[in-house]
Every structure is written in structure tokens, then in C-alpha cells.
Amino acid sequence: MFVFVCAGCGAELTTALSQVSLPVHARQTYGNGVQLPVLMEAGTFAVDPDPWGGPWRMWDEIDPGEAEARGIYAPVYALSDSTPGASVIAPGDIRGTRLIPEKSGGACCGLDGADGPNMACEACDLPVGTRVDDCSLWQAVRLSPDAVHRVPVDGIHAAPLSWAELAEKGEKTPPFEPIATWGGRLGSNHYWSWSPRWEAAAGHALAHLLVASQGQPVKVPGGLTADVFQRALDALLPAGPPKRCAVLAGPGQPSPDAGVDILLVPVHPRTGRTWTPAGPTASAYLVPLPLGVWLWLVSPQPYVPIPASGRIPQDVLRDDPLPLLPNYAFRADRGTFQHALVRLPAVRSPWLRTILENLTKGTSADLF
Fold first, then answer.
1. What's the alpha-carbon Rg for the chain, to the nearest Å?
2. Which regions of the chain are under pLDDT 50?
3. Angle, to 10 degrees, between the axis of helix 224-236 and the axis of helix 291-298?
């Protein structure tokens, strides 16, 4: 467990927090006017290894060698020049800070951090972090790595759950959820949609699936896995019979056949490590998926009505009629896909560069 303290005066700025891996949807921008929830679970923090926010430099201002040293292997619109390594926490876990009014930015519904750090230490006025809560952005506080220190504190130091424990006790992430929008004249509004978490997870995994394909047609398992990936794979890869096969693999699952080329595997939510197989498939390409998404794919949870008596309390969301399914085909998150793909060295291959260029030109808009 750790608390974060001000680098200027030593004042405590957070509750006690335990470290977890950064969610794959941390940089996602979703929809228009959407109220996204808090990014991090209460009592946790994650370190973002990449720079975030201004100042920015356009791609033509950056030497290719510098970009590759930063882990960027293909052109992007611009690169952040801020200090990497920010610690990301839930807004409710911050203490001893105040907002900086002149750093509120020009966002439409909240704070977007465009003007730089917008939170200062109450004790010494040092800018220590950036609160983000604008529409279409996940709510979070990003503590500046050069303005805070992480200090260990006494507490329960629980070991990370084993893969077997995660397979049994891990929390599944449903593929559909109600999306809230900012209220207009008629008040707040909701609509049923594919989960933003799933769209971001699919964008990240799709980048890896393309690299694993080596430019050849790929077949994924049927059902929900095919709904999420197959349409995009068929559109982005050459037509023809599948030459590479991807399957779901991980703790508690049967060992894949020796001829399998690609494995869709879970990522440990605390350590960030990818599950790795043993045996004949040890050399297969591992495509990472958030644990909650992976758990749902390997064991979908059907809706099972439960008989009940009495009236439904007024503050309980009715399930009669059942929530409608989204009325559009699944689309991976474009920004997450691009962020992941440009950071994979294989993107230097001409065929992958063509996919990336078509994405920036908008010719793949119906897939994302």
C-alpha cells in the first residue's frame, strides 16, 4: 500500500492505495456527450508509462529515431511531450488538493486537462495533478510524476491472486450496458449499447491479431468472439480460406491443439502480466484481453429470469421488457486500435502501414 505526498511540502494527497495494471480503456474517448464512469476502482492506482497531454509536437517535427526510442513505429498525428509515468487514481481517493480555476480548459461539460495540471496542493499551491471528468472521457485524476512522491504505508499486503483463483473468482465484464448521456431539456437519458470497455479491449486485441495474422486470413471462434473480431479481420485481411487459427486459451481451459497459431489470453488485472501456456502452443502468438472480457468470452452468462413476488422498488431499474440489444454491429474502438498498432514493431511492414493509412483517411470508418 502507498500514499502519494506532495513533492514540495510532503503533505499527503491520497488515501492508501494498492497498485494495479492500467486499464486498456484509459485513453479512450467514447461517443459524444456521454457520461463515462470512474476509470480506476477506489483504493487503487496505476502507472501510465506513456506521456499524456500537452505540450504536443507534430509528427513532422519528430525524428524517426526519437519516435522509435519512445516505442512509436509508425506516423501519428502528434506526440505528447509531457513527462511519462503519471499515476492514475479515482477522483474520490484524492485528498488535500484544490482545483486551479484558470486551468479549467475549454471543455464542454467538465475538465479535460487540456490546459495542463489543474489541481494544486492545498498546503503549498504546487500543481500536483490533473482531474479529467469531461463528457466522453473516463473520470480520473492523473498525479504528475515530477510533483508527487509515492510513500509505502503499513497495511495488508495481499499477494496477487493466482490464475486459478482469477478464473474462479474474477469478475466478468458484460458486453452490453446502458450508456448515460448529459441531460437536456427532458433530463438525463440512457441508451443500450455495446460496452465501451469491450470496444477498447477489442481495439487493442485487434492490433495484435493483425500482427499475428502475418497478412493471412484468420479464423476466430464462433459466437460472441466472432461478433467482436471476425468482421474486422475479414475486411482488413486478404480474402480466402483461413490460414491461421485463433482460439481462446487460459486458466481452466482445455489445452489448445498443437496446430493453433494464435491464442486469445487474459491479462492479470493487478500485475498486468499476460497468461502464458506451456507445451506445444508455447510458441503461439498471445493476444491480450482484459480478464473480465476474457472470462465472459470463455463462459458467456445468459440472462436467466428469476421468479419474484411483490412490487419492484421505485429506485430499481426495471427489466420488463428486457433491455434491447444494440441495433448495430460491434465496432472496435478506433483510438485504442491505433494507439496499440503504432507501438508494435511489426507495423513497419508495408501491408500494416497501408491499413493504418486507410484508417487515418477514414476508409475503414464502418469497422470502427
1. 22
2. 186, 304-305
3. 110
